[in-house]
Amino acid sequence: MIRINLLPHRELARKRRKENFQVALAFSALLGGVLAGVIYLGYQASLSSQSSTNQILSGEIAKLESQIKDIAGLESEIAALRARQQAVEDLQSDRNLPVHLLTELVNQLPDGVFISKMSQTDRVVTINGTAQSNERVSEFLRNLGNNTPWFTKPELIEIVASTMSLSPREQKRVYNFAISVKLVRASEAEKVSAGVAHGSSAPAQPPKPSQP
């Protein structure tokens, strides 16, 4: 009977399998490292691209903010220029306000009302005078509020009854009053006057003939 010793052959096979496993393990580790490196480089490239895009966007945003500031500054300058222009126009148009003030007071003053004193603060005019009756003062207030575009918001400050000596034997009852009224700017009054004139100048429609 022949006996064969297989121990060396088995050890060689086991050694080969172990070597093959180690080679496969090393290849897997190498492949994993390569894949990890590729993924890392991809992430780095993506981050670099995003960072570059963010820098470009930040630069554009800074430019837009600077342009917005410039536009806001221009708008404020335009508003200031318009305000100055309006102020100059108001001053030019208000040069004749005293003339309009006296003319309108004469036109709206009823019979039996006399002005003794007049003062002006800004565009508020205070009128002191004497009237023959309360009705005359009321009529004066209505005229100032309704019949002229140069005055607005007339208010009666006070009215006091007193007596006036016409002769040593004759006395008459009168009413001393104080009225405040706001003087309208010339540009605004002229617009109102133009609108009223345009409305009154519209031709009236002729009446239609009646049907038989």
Largest sheet: 4 strands, antiparallel
Number of helices, where a helix is a run of at least 4 consecutive DSSP H or I residues = 4
Biggest sheet strand line-up: 1-2-4-3
Mean pLDDT, all residues: 79
Query: How many β-strand runs?
Result: 4
Structural class: alpha+beta
- Ranges with pLDDT <50 over ≥5 residues? 200-212
Principal-axes shape call: rod-shaped
Radius of gyration over all CA atoms, rounded: 50 Å
Distance between the termini: 157 Å
Q: State the helical fraction.
A: 55-70%
String of helices and strands: HHEEHEEH
How much of the polypeptide forms β-strand, as a percent range? 15-25%
Helix-strand layout with pairing:
Blueprint lengths: L6 H87 L3 H12 L4 E9 L2 E8 L2 H13 L4 E15 L5 E13 L2 H15 L12
Antiparallel strand pairs: 1-2, 2-4, 3-4
Folded structure, characterized:
With 212 residues, the protein is an alpha+beta fold. The chain contains 4 helices and 4 strands. The protein has helices at residues 7-93, 97-108, 134-146, 186-200; strands at residues 113-121, 124-131, 151-165, 171-183. A 4-stranded antiparallel β-sheet has the order 1-2-4-3, with helices on one face. β1 and β2 form a beta hairpin. It is rod-shaped, with a radius of gyration of 50 Å.
List keywords for this structure.
212 residues, alpha+beta, four-stranded antiparallel beta sheet, 4 strands, rod-shaped, disordered C terminus
Short description:
This protein is of the alpha+beta class. It has four helices and four strands, in the order ααββαββα.
